[in-house]
Amino acid sequence: SYELTQPLSVSVALGQTARITCGGNNVGDKNVHWYQQRPGQAPVLVVYKDSERPSAIPERFSGSNSGNTATLTISRAQAGDEADYYCQVWDSSTVVFGGGTKLTVL
Amino acid sequence: EVQLVESGGGLVQPGGSLRLSCAASGFTFSSNWMHWVRQAPGKGLVWVSRIDRDGSTTNYADSVKGRFTISRDNAKNTLYLQMNSLRVEDTAVYYCASWIAEPGGGYFDFWGQGTLVTVSS
Lengths: 106, 121
Known about the structure:
Chain A has about 110 residues and is mostly beta strands.
C-alpha cells in the first residue's frame, strides 16, 4: 500500500517561513492535498491539487509537489498557524494520509 | 453555509454495535461522494469508508471490512455508518467529510466536527 511520510514536528519563529514535507514514491505524479487541524477541532483544507488554495485560506499558505516530495509552505508564520498538518493523496481506490506534522510557532 | 453534523457516538462494549449519522446541509448532498475518516486519541487521520452519490458503490479500509457498513439517505441528506463487532482499537473520533472528485485524486472540502466512539469494557 502507498505510504506518505511526514516529519513528526516542525518549529518556526514567529514571522518566518515554515516548510512541511510529505514524502512518497513518485508523489509528484499524484495530486497532493493538505489539511490543518487545530487542537480539538476538525481538519480544514488549506491546499488542494498540490498548490491551489481555497478562497478562505490566506495567501501565506502555498504548496508544491515534485519528484518524491510535496511541500506545504507557510510564510510569515503566526501563532494561529500552530496546528497539526496532514498531507493526503488518492491511491488504488483508497484515501491515504500522511502521519501528520505538528507545527510549533516560537 | 455547509454543515456536516455527526451524532450517535458513545461508549460501547467490545463486540457491540453503534450507528453513526451525519446530517448534511448547505450543499447538494446527493451530488457528492461522502466518506468517514477516524482519528484515535492522539493519533493521525485514517480513512474508513466511502460511498458514491446514489449509494450503489461503497469501499472500506481493510481494518473495518465486513464489520462496518456505510449508507446514505439522499432524501434526508444524511450519511450513516453502521459499526458492528466493535473492537477496542475502533476507539476514535469519527468524522464525516464531503469529497471533491478530481482526475488523479480527490480531496475533502468540508468536514464535520466529529463524534467520539469509545469501545471499552
